[in-house]
Amino acid sequence: MNPSEEQKGTSGPPAGGPSTDGAPSPAGSAPSGTPDALKPNLTPFEAVSAEPTVQPADPLDSYQDGYPHDPVPEPPAPPPPVPVQAVATRPRRPGGGGKTPPPPPPPPDGGGDDEDDGMLRMSFLEHLEELRTRIIRSLMGVAVAFGLSLFYSNQLWDFVCQPAVGALKTLGYNPQNLVQIEPMEAFNVIWFKLPVLCAIFLAAPWILYQVWAFIAPGLYRRERRWAAPFVLGTGGLFILGGIFAYFVVFRFGLTFLLSIGQGNHVVAMVSITEYFNLFVNVTLGVGLIFEMPVLIFLGILLRLVTPSFLMNHSRYAILAIFIIAAIVTPTPDVFNLMLFAVPMCILFYIGIFAGYLLVLHRENRRFPWKKTITIVIPVLMLLALVLYVSITKYGMRLVPHWPFLTR
Predict the structure, then answer these.
(1) Which H or E run includes 137?
(2) Of 9, 82, 210, 398, which is least packed with CB atoms within 10 Å of its CB?
(3) What is the residue extent of each domain of the chain?
(4) Burial of 250 by CB count in 10 Å (0-12 exposed, 13-18 middle, 19+ buried)?
C-alpha cells in the first residue's frame, strides 16, 4: 500500500469522536469512517419540505371511457341583482304650497276592464233555453195585441180598404167595393188575418226588445246602453215603413196595377183575399226594408263591418238591394220595383251615416254639425220656397197620398 494513501485513510477523526469542525454529525448520519456501501441513502428524504409536492393529474384518470375530452367550462356566475326602487311621483299642482297632493281615489267596485266586465258565459244548452224563453214571451205579446185588435176588426177593415176605394174611385169604377167569392173569405180576412197583422205591428217594440235581450248577454256593458235606442229605433222604423207603404207605395202601386188593363175591355173586380194578401206583402215588405239602418248600425256596433268598407263597396250593395227589391215586390213591373229599391238605397246610406257617428264617438271625435247645418238649411229653404210658389201661383194643393202635391 502506498504510504500516502495509508496516511489519508488514517487522517480522519476517530469513530464516535467529534468532527473536525467541532459540529456534531447530523442525526441518522453514518460516521465518516463508515464505508460507502454501509452508508444510508438519504437522497429521497433531502427534498422533503413542509408543503407536499402536488403531482400533475393524468387527464385520462378523470374520464371513465379513457379518452381525452375538452374541459367543461364552468357556468358563468349570475350577475348580482340590481336594486330597483319604484317611486311614484305626481306633478305638483300650482299654488299647492309645497304640500303633497292626496292619492287618487280607488276605482269603484266593478270598474275594471270593460272588455271583460259584464259579459255572461253561457253554454249551448243555456243559449237554447234562453232562445225558447224569448220566443214564448214574444208570442205572448203578440197574443195580447191580437186580443186588442180583435175588438176593432170592423174599424181596422175600413182603414185597410181605403187604398182600394181610392184607386177604384180614381179609375172611375162605381161602386168602389171589393168582392167576396168564397163563403169563409170575409171571416178569414176580417176576423183573423187582419187582427194578426195589426198585432204584429203593435207588438213590434216588444218583439224587438226580446231580440235585444237575447243578444245583450254577448255584449259588453258599454254596448248594452244601446238597448233603449235599439228598441225605439227598430220599432219606430218598422211602423214608419208600414205607414210609408200604406200612404205611398200601396196606394200608388195599386192604382197603377188596376189601370193597366183599363180600356182593353177589362173590368177590375178585386176579391177580398187577393187584395189583403197584396196589402200584407207590401206592408210587411216595406216595414222590413225600413230596418236596414238598424242592421247596418248593429254590424258596425259589433265591429263586423266599418263605414269605410260599406262606402267602398256600395255599388255591390245597391245591386243586392235591387235584387232583394225584385224578390220582395209582389208584381213584376219596374215601377213597383223602383218604389221598393229607392227607399232601400236611401236607408242604406242613412245606416252608414249612423254607424259613422258611432265610430266618431269611439274615437272621441265630433261630427262637423255646424258645417252640415249650413248646407242643409239653405236646401230646405229652397224646397220650401218651391212648395210655396207651387201652391200660391200654380194652384197646387197638398193631398195625403202620393205624390202629395196635385192640382
Answers:
(1) helix 124-150
(2) 82
(3) 119-290, 303-367, 373-407
(4) buried
